[in-house]
User: What shape does this take?
Amino acid sequence: MMAKHKTSGGVVLLVATRKGGWLFHSDARRQSWRVDGPHFLGHIIHHMVLDPRDGRTLLAAAKTGHLGPTVYRSTDMGSTWKEARQPPAFAPQPGGTGRVVDHSFWLTPAHGAEPDVWYAGTSPQGLFRSEDGGVSWSPFSILNDDPQFRAWMGTAQDGTPDGPMLHSVIVDPRDPKHLYIGMSGGGVHETRDGGQSFTPLLGGLEVVEGFDPGDPSFHDPHCVRLCPDNPDRLYQQNHCGIYRLDRPGDQWQRVGRAMPEAVGDIGFPMVVHPRDADRCWVFPMDGADVWPRTAPGGTPAVYGTRDAGEHWQRLDQGLPSAQAWWTVKRQAMNGDTLDPVGLYFGTTSGELWASSDEGAQWTCIARHLPEIYGVEAAVTG
Amino acid sequence: MQVLIPSPLHGYTGSARVQARGATLGALLEDLDRQFPGIRFRIIDEQGRMRPHMRFFINQVAVFELDEVLRETDEVVIVQALSGG
Assistant: This one.
């Protein structure tokens, strides 16, 4: 979806946590926030997304303790929820030998020309599609069962601590059949034929030393974003650095090399500016030795670029200056589409931070939440 | 027969004790799903296997197969064995 340039209306933050979901509402000034929640207290909510096409359909990917995964749907901003009639599930295989969806991890509304279509990425890696606004889901594309892709996906042993996952489902706003997906592990891939085939898009990406960068199995994209005002440009926060890709080229450039050496370019989330493809933001974390993946030196900062990654500026006004060992997960940082852009991130220690001026100044708007998995910002009204 | 439902699934049934029918445990779960749509997928995965930590007891005896035969007088208890923090 192309981002709309809005200067009025309000903003809602959709905060997904390990113990439920919260909604934070504000007006366009974004100076004060009204909390609504918890929703689904005790449920593991991996992602909550508001459909920008209708401004009212809200989906939440949920798992409840040991119960199977599901998706909840609301059309009244969370006042009432209804469970999906058919949640994402792999195709049954003879003898019960097939894979099982542990949880839906990533939700993406599809192209504007397909108003009720959504995509879901799951753990383990799977891609699913709903054509009725999230009520029923079916396996989508060749990805789930193709032997080559299954090999590239690896096993649970190869995945992240929360399980291997398919994420960063991106729809080209010019072409509903052109999608990008990321798999941890398994790399970045694109389809131009609506999922009938996928091509690895790995040129220029590095992998952990000693492994073959030509093998998608060894690639770990953490978060891939497409620039709304220039859909030929993508940014990626990878396990091995920050990258930019300009299509039709197929070689990622490691723009994270321009980050300060003491900070590095390791992290999980990536946020792009809604109207300026030269701008994006990251939240660097420590990738040294045993990979703490906490704010380097315990001094958290967002870093932003205004020139497509040639240079990066530290944005830490208002953030703690010491002893803040934060981790921000890949879905837990996002921006709105107002002017100036609002930026938001949530920590695994349950703090929610906001900036209404593109990162120049930060304010904590909630503490003591459960571990934050996802933060989505949506403009309302 | 009477089926005791664990609290995480009361959102489907509205109560802890419900009545359901079936010649086997699998058939009983199908009947539960007819009465309470969606409940079966939360406890049985898409490959037809009991989800981890979901336990089933017939007359106080643990069972592990969905083709376990049931009689009308049996009592079925479904338990979610909680773990973790």
About this structure: Confidence is low (pLDDT under 50) at residues 1-5 of chain A. The interface with chain B takes residues 64-68, 70, 83-85, 87, 89-93, 96-101 of chain A (CB under 8 Å). Chain A has one helix and 27 strands. The longest helix of chain A spans residues 147-153.
